[in-house]
Structure formats: structure tokens, C-alpha cells
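Researcher: Here's my situation. A collaborator sent me these components and asked whether they could plausibly form a single complex. I don't have experimental data yet, so a predicted model of the whole assembly would be a useful starting point for our discussion.
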Amino acid sequence: MSVEVRIIKQVPGFTLDVNWNMIDEVLALFGFSGSGKTMTLQSIAGLIKPDAGFIRVGDRHFFDSASKIDVRTRERRIGYVLQDSALFPHMSVRSNIAYGLIRGERPERAQRVKEMIRLLKLNGFDKAFPHELSGGQKQRVALARALVGKPDILLLDEPFSALDRPIRNKMHEVIHGIRSKFSIPMVLVTHDFHEVEKLADKVVVYSDGRAIQTGSPAELQKNPSGDLVKKLLGIG
Amino acid sequence: MDSSALFSIRLSVQVALTATCLVVPVGIFFSYVLARKNFRGKDLLDIMLTLPLVLPPTVTGYYLVVLFGRNGPLGGPIYDLTGWTIMFTWQAAVLASFVVSMPLMVKTGRAAIETVDPQLIDVSSTLGHSEVNTVFKVILPLARNGLIAGASLSFARAMGEFGATLMLAGNIPGRTDTAPLSIYSYASNGDWSSANGMVLLFTIVSGIFLYISIRSSDRIFR
């Protein structure tokens, strides 16, 4: 499925002006904090409204300023995972995951939740509450909840940056597993190039609201477009 | 305790319970609107809902008499349609308690709703849930302790309502003399022993509800 993003959004002191596309791959939005990566994800999710541009996922238009299309967040069919997992603290693991399923018969839904628990290796934790889980487990629940409703696109906003390196490496394997099971585009926001190398097929380098370089992680390393990209890669 | 004292206590409980049952849903609605929405006139709405907290209850009562009296803009049409007026009925005491205890529900409820992590609300919508669904499944359960605190404060305030009730419902023995009004009557007639009993009872009941409120609001921030 293809994703096309063209966003212009102005807020006091900052302008986001980006244009990129992808097809069924893992794309990383890579750059320093405050460069507009999260704002881009929020625009795709419909949590903020761009001033102009368009956002298309497959043949669906999420947003198009020219034809005044702005599909509501809840109708966009997206999976969204945040850095601090944002699990509902009053719900068990099972209820958190089931919350991502709003359609379907009860037995069928229970079956889907079970599948996600198995897929994300959460067996035995289904009755636990978020405060009883480790950081890595919380993010696995957040991924299960985001994926259970079979979204058309998965948005990951620095999902592993709060985790220790060994747990992070395990989570990268989880993402590879998800990738082989669900063939959906994934957009990953990160400022960790190691993560980009391990997960992404394509990188869009953000700086101060603009996409300054696009390419594969290898291309980026071989041919950084300027000092800023070198600095981001830690080679400048 | 004689039968008139018992009547007053029963009436007070009845009035406070009814008022609280109305204050809770209406107050939660306004709490949510003030906590989560931005619109023109938001400050004005906030002021209107808070005014009864700072106005002398007699002034609140005066407004209610003007609005709901037989010739008032609200009371007039009701009287023309039904031949009934709320003035000097127990329902008038409910109305007075409702208006006076609303600010406590709204202030506490708004604070509780504002403590709910906005990311959770965003995530709920990305998962396909409507705003109403998110309110009932995420926001209200997470704001629950603050809402309980607000409801118990409102109940205590409704139980103790005096000024606006006197203006709107009068102090009719056996009809609208709630416990606070009875205490006033006992004291003005020099019946100190009856006053003492009811004052003591009131202090204990209000203390209990304040305790519930404090314990619940403690838990908001845990």
C-alpha cells in the first residue's frame, strides 16, 4: 500500500513543510527533537490538521486541503504507538488490547485478542494491569492494541527510546515479526540511527520542519548530504 | 427527637439526594466541556457556574425567585401551562441546593478530568472510538475519584443549604423546613436543646462527607 504525504503546517515559531512517499515499507523519520517528526505523525493520525497539503494511504484520502477532505481520526484505521505506551491504566492487558477492536462478534473478538497475545508473546500477562508490566512488555501491549483492529498503517513515535539497549534489540525483532505477519506500511519516528539501520528501508531526514535528505540507510551513510546529516549520523 | 425534627432531617436528606442526583450528571457535563473544549464565552460560562459559590446565598435565591416566580421568565410559562409553581415547595429547596452545590461539582470534576492524560484520549480515537465512547470508557473511569469527591462535596453543601432555600421555598413547618431552617427556628425561639441535637448531627454528617471527599481527591493524584 502506498503512502503519500505533503504537509504544510504553521505554528508560532515553527513551520512544517514536508513531502515524501513510501510503498509497503518501513520508513523512518529521522532527526533531532523539534524537527517536526511527531507533528507529521500526528497529522497522519488526524490529531492535528495541516494548513495545506494532502495525506493519502492506499486509495484513501485522509486529508486534502484542495478538496476539503479531513477524515476523522477514528475513521482513518491507523495503529499509533507512543513512547510511553499510553496504556489505559484502569484496564487489564486483555482489555487494553480488546479496546482496539470495536467491530465483530464477541467470540471472534476474543479470538483476535488471543492471537495478538500469542503473537506478541504476552501469554500469562492477559490479566495483569499496566503498572505491573516492564517497559518492554508495555510496548508489546501497545503494539498488540494498535494492530488488533488490522490498521492500514502503523505509526510508531519513538516507541523504544525509553527502553534499555538489550530490550530495544528484542523489540526490533518484534517489529520484524510484525512486518512479516502484517504487510502494512510503518512510519517510525526516531533519533537513533542504529534503530534506523536495523528497521528501516527508507529514511527521511528532518531538520527544522523540512525533509533535507531521503534514501536508504546505506545511501545516507555513504553519501550524507551535508554537515547536519553527518552530525545526526555521528560521523561529522 | 420529636416528629417535626425527624421530618426536617428526612426532608433535608431527600432534598440533598435529589439535588445531588441532578448535579452529578449536569456537573460532569459542564466539567468535561470546561476541561476539554475551547470556545468563545468559555470564561463567561465558568463564571456563571462559579458565581453561586461566592455570591451571598440570598442573592442566588433572589435570582431564582425572579426567574422561577409565578411571573418570572421561566416560572411564568410553567405556571400558565400547569397551574403549578415551584415557589414554596420542597422542589424549590432542591432547585436552590442544585444551583448552590453545582460549583463544587464543576470545580472538582474539571480538575479531575484535566488530570486524565490527553495521550490516552488521542489513542482512544486512533483506535476507532467516538468521543462519547472515550468519555465513558476512558475519561470518566480515570477521573472517578475526583468525581466522587465532587459529588460528596455537593451533597454536603446541598444538605447545608439555607439562604437560597429560605428565599425560594420559605420556612413552612411540615413542608419546606429543612434541617438548617429548623435550626434557625429553634435558635430564634430559644429552644436550645433541640437546636443542639440537630447541630451536632449536622456537624457529624458534614464531617463524614468531607472525609469521603478528601480521601477520594487524595486518590486522584496517586
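Model: Some features of this prediction you could bring to your collaborator: The radius of gyration of chain A is 18 Å. Helices of chain A lie at 37-45, 93-98, 106-119, 135-147, 165-181, 193-199, 217-222, 227-233.
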